[in-house]
Amino acid sequence: MTTPTAAFNVTAAHITKTPDVRGGKPCIAGRGIKVQNVYVWHEHLGMSADEIASAYSLSLVQVHAALTYAFEHLDEIRTDILEGERIAEAIQKQNPSRIQEKLNHIQKDGD
């Protein structure tokens, strides 16, 4: 049976947090894929570990290390996801869709 210390070592070997990489967010070592992305793919999009590994050329160990880290730091991961959503909404408000503007203009002219 694997001891918690051994499991931590596997996670630590595959997950890094570097200030100048992806804003210091936890990533899969050497890949730059954020742990929060793996978490979202698995928990929100329903992808299996095998599907994630295949789609992003990762080993199952890397995927499971990312998921282990995510569940051990769930508050951090959820906060990062919400922060990203807020940033995306702010950018979207500052930069309205050109297509939507055209549709609004066409609809306005048709009224």
Q: How would you describe what is shown here?
A:
This protein is mainly α and 111 residues long. It has six helices and two strands; from the N terminus they run αββααααα. The chain is elongated and about 65 Å long. The protein starts with a helix and ends with a helix.
- Average per-residue pLDDT, rounded, comes to 88
Q: Indicate the overall shape.
A: elongated
Give me the secondary-structure category: mainly alpha
- Return the CATH topology: Arc Repressor Mutant, subunit A
Radius of gyration: 19 Å
CATH class (first level) name: Mainly Alpha
Please report the number of helical segments: 6
Low-confidence stretches: none
CATH superfamily: Winged helix-like DNA-binding domain superfamily/Winged helix DNA-binding domain
Compact overview of the structure:
The chain is 67% helix and 4% strand. The protein has helices at residues 4-14, 35-43, 49-55, 60-72, 74-94, 98-110; strands spanning 15-16, 27-28.
Features:
111 residues; mainly alpha; Arc Repressor Mutant, subunit A; two-stranded antiparallel ribbon; 67% helix
Topology:
Blueprint: H1 4-14, E1 15-16, E2 27-28, H2 35-43, H3 49-55, H4 60-72, H5 74-94, H6 98-110
